[in-house]
Each structure stands twice: as structure tokens, then as C-alpha cells.
Amino acid sequence: MPCIAPEGTRRPGLATRARVRAASPILDGMALTRDDVLHIARLARIALSDDEVERFRAQLSGILDHFAALAAVDTDGVEPTAHPLPLANVMRDDVIEPSLPRDDVLANAPLAEDGYFRVRAVLE
């Protein structure tokens, strides 16, 4: 039998804890409760069995623990970055060269007709 929180149920405690954690430099590694998982399931509009509630409670708590470990790392003086290595586009000069002969190109095609590639109709 699926377990899902009633539509009107609110869990202000979960939002408050998330807000407190976001303001805090170090997360406290809290395990989610069954009610927290049911609240998340209701927000996602999914029904969970009792076994799934317990499995997701453990998995989501583990994810929060990973975030707690990341929050504990001292990042003062570290510039934000999207990539750890400097990136640069390496492009060759655009040089005009003769194209391949049509017969050589069509020789590799699975189907050719009248000097063109033959493809399956896309629109009917």
C-alpha cells in the first residue's frame, strides 16, 4: 500500500532546517526522518511503499552527509570556478580546400540514387 502525505500537510521544520543549514558554514549531518521523506515524496507527487520510504530515507540521508563533508572544507580565498583547469578553444585556420569527388563520397553510402544520398522518408 503506497504511503504519501495528505495534500494539505506542511512540514515547516524541514524548510527551517534547510534554511539554517544554508546559513551555517558546516552542516550537522542530520539523518532524515520518515516524515521528511514522505514530505519530499508529496512535493514530487510520487507514491512510495513502506520499503521505498526506508530505502530513500537512508539514501537521502547519505547524500546530506556528503554535503556536510563538502561544507566542512575551508574554501576561504579560493576563487569560484566552473572547471579546475584553464580552458581555451584550439581552432585551426579556416583554409579552403577542394571537396571530395561525389562518386567517392557516394561509394560509402548505404543507398545512393541519381548522385544523391537516398534516405528513408521522414514525413508521410
Strand order of the largest sheet: 1-2
**Poorly predicted runs:** 1-27
| Beta-strand content | under 5%
Name the quaternary structure.
single chain
Query: Helix and strand succession?
Result: HHHHEE
| Broad structural category | mainly alpha
Helix segment tally: 4
Query: What kind of sheet is the major sheet?
Result: 2 strands, antiparallel
Question: What is the typical, i.e. mean, pLDDT?
Answer: 79
Rg, Cα atoms, Å? 28 Å
Distance between the termini: 46 Å
Helical content class: 40-55%
Number of strand segments: 2
What shape does the CA trace take?
elongated
Description:
The protein is mainly alpha-helical and 124 residues long. It has a domain at 12-71. The chain contains 4 helices and 2 strands, in the order H-H-H-H-E-E. It has helices at residues 12-23, 34-44, 50-71, 102-107; strands spanning 112-113, 116-117. The protein has a two-stranded antiparallel sheet. Strand 1 (112-113) and strand 2 (116-117) form a beta hairpin. The longest helix has 22 residues, at 50-71. The two termini are 46 Å apart. The model is unreliable at 1-27 (pLDDT under 50).
